[in-house]
Write a structure and sequence with these properties.
With about 350 residues, the chain is of the alpha/beta class. It has a single domain, classed as Rossmann fold, CATH 3.40.50. The chain is built from 13 helices and 8 strands. Helix 3 links the parallel strand 1 and strand 2. It starts with a helix and ends with a helix.
């Protein structure tokens, strides 16, 4: 009898010990952001599934937010802590589209248990293309919400070997202090490491080619942002909306002009003003957009530029912001502003 008992114990140990080791390591590093602990070995977190990771973070983390930040990958590089006076959660996601905003707003409201005092939205002109084809496929927002809401979801993921793969990479990066092109820390702040000059030039050329052919090219068809923004405001009548345009580099803006999209750009700015009463426009030739040193490629600005954006739209005094970076556009100065941008880029 003792022999059988020892055999059972030995067999169970062979099965359980590896599983417990995987679960323990996944919990310790927590690459899916299901738990709240932070230490030196999980400070660099890869953003391998932002939609699920950030959904987990707001589901299982702090719920004392009074502001929400939405936008694409460009907005992910703006720190939620740069919005002075607000307790903001940055729910911006890679290739986030306007059609997804209402879903993520509603889910975030459910988690915090109340309406937000303020919702900050960063808009990309490229997303106005009705025929936009994204390079990556994403599930519907309900998929990620459903995952987080599954019974014992965060504990079941501890046994995943896929999660283990990212946990190991995060551990190695944190342990050795190795920079990643982009990564988060445990406070939902994203960094962006400058590439070497050769890689950067390749990234810039790739951006210009892709936008010129796939985004602003012959398949472009303007899709108005006005109805969606109006619907968001109607669904959140007690919330202040701060809307801004994300500043691509002037080099990329010139591709837009070359492809004959300036009229659509003007419609975009007008739609934002008509829907919200105002928009903070950063996407035009200025001190920041004209300096490629402020950009990782032709499209994505570095986090320090994100700080300028946050401070400008929230009205936080910052002497480091160039005076020509960011214009609050309202019905009063709309025509004048668009005429000035047209003059800058040589459009009649």
């Amino acid at each position: 009898m003792n022999i059988y008992k020892k055999w059972i114990i030995a067999t169970l140990s062979l099965i359980l010990l590896p599983l417990l080791t995987i679960a323990g390591f996944n919990f310790y590093i927590d690459p899916l952001w299901n738990f709240n602990h932070a230490h030196r070995y999980n400070q660099i977190q890869m953003s391998f599934n932002e939609r699920q990771q950030k959904t987990n973070l707001i589901t299982f983390g702090s719920h004392d937010y009074n502001a929400l930040i939405l936008g694409s990958s460009r907005v992910t590089y703006i720190s939620q802590y740069d919005f002075s006076g607000l307790k903001a959660f940055n729910y911006a996601l890679n290739n986030m589209l306007l059609s997804e905003y209402n879903h993520y707003i509603n889910y975030a409201k459910q988690q915090v248990g109340h309406d937000f005092d303020c919702i900050v939205i960063g808009l990309d002109f490229f997303a106005t293309n009705k025929n936009l084809e994204l390079p990556s496929h994403f599930e519907l927002p309900s998929y990620y919400f459903g995952q987080s809401q599954q019974l014992a979801y965060r504990y079941k993921t501890l046994l995943s070997t896929d999660v283990l793969k990212y946990a190991r990479k995060n551990y190695e990066a944190s342990h050795e202090g190795l920079p990643r092109s982009y990564a988060y820390n445990r406070a939902n702040v994203k960094t962006l490491v400058a590439p070497n000059p050769e890689d950067r030039q390749w990234l810039i050329n790739k951006n210009l080619k892709w936008y010129g052919e796939k985004i602003y090219g012959p398949t472009y068809q303007y899709d108005s942002v006005k109805p969606v923004l109006q619907a968001l405001k109607k669904a959140n009548p007690h919330t202040r909306f701060i809307i801004f345009t994300t500043p691509s580099s002037d080099l990329l803006f010139r591709v837009l002009i070359k492809q004959g999209r300036f009229g659509d750009y003007e419609r975009w700015i007008r739609d934002c003003v008509e829907a919200n009463g105002e928009v903070y426009n950063f996407m035009y030739p200025n001190s920041i957009t004209s300096d490629l040193n402020n950009y990782y490629d032709a499209s994505h600005f570095y986090p320090q530029i994100g700080t300028f954006i946050a401070h400008r739209v929230i009205g936080h005094e910052d002497k480091n912001i160039p005076q020509d970076f960011g214009v609050r556009v309202t019905a009063r100065n709309l025509d004048q502003h668009l005429q000035e941008v047209a003059r800058q880029v040589g459009v009649e």
